[in-house]
Amino acid sequence: MRSASQIFWKALTRQGDSFTGTVTQYYRKSGAPIRTLTFKNGIRLKEEHYDSTGSVDFVIEYSVDFEEMRIESQKSYRYGIPWVETTYLPPIFSNNYRVSLFDSSGNLKRTLTNYNWPDSAVSTEYDFEGNITFQEHYANGQLVEKIK
Fold first, then answer.
1. What is the pTM of this model?
2. Does a structural domain hold residue 105?
3. For residue 4, what are the CA distances in angstroms to 1, 46, 70, 78, 98?
4. Strand 43-50, strand 142-146: pairing
5. What is the distance between the alpha carbons of residues 126 and 129, in angstroms, rounded to a whole number?
6. How many structural domains are present in the chain?
7. CA–CA dist 37, 107 (Å, integer)
8. What DSSP string runs through 18-65?
9. Quick check: is 125 in a domain?
10. Could you tell me if residue 78 is inside a domain?
11. How far, in whole angstroms, is CA 108 from its chain's centroid?
12. What range defines the domain where residue 27 resides?
């Protein structure tokens, strides 16, 4: 079974071919950009969202396995600083993934690794130097072990 977050739609040209290139959407009244989407072989690889001044404020980058036709990971940035990263773990199209959250300086703050949620999950917090300061293991939504 495919995880819904790993399924994506293909962008096609009017002739039905897979689209490669960029598309920018604009506000009708002001003409200011809203977002730019980058595609390769019909698959979205990047989204750039703009603030009211026209500067890029939010970016999402997708890592895609074109052979398996699945998203391997997606990374989000706020004003160029890492914000959230989601990595989809084996087996392919399972409900196994890791979410990494970053602080306002781009330092790793917390990870949550799920294995067939809610069957099993590990929550980990880090200090500014990347050392683990807190870690817990959950099963069926309940705390089963405080590792650190």
1. 0.81
2. no
3. 9, 19, 11, 24, 15
4. unpaired
5. 8
6. 1
7. 27
8. BP-EEEEEE-TTT--EEEEEEEETTEEEEEEEE-TTS-EEEEEEEEEE
9. no
10. yes
11. 15
12. 4-84
* Whole-number Å distance between alpha carbons of 47 and 53: 17
pLDDT tens for residues 54-107?
899 999 999 988 887 778 899 999 999 999 999 988 776 677 889 999 999 999
Check residue 57 and give its pLDDT. Answer: 94
CB 33 within 8 A of CB 26: yes
Nearest to 73 by CA among 54, 45, 48, 49: 45
Q: Give the whole-angstrom CA distance, residue 51 versus residue 5.
A: 26
Q: Tokens at residue 108, please? A: 């790793």
Residue bearing tokens 């980990």: 124
Q: Is residue 22 part of a domain?
A: yes
- List the Cα angle 110/132/138 in 5-degree steps: 65
Q: What single DSSP character describes residue 1?
A: -
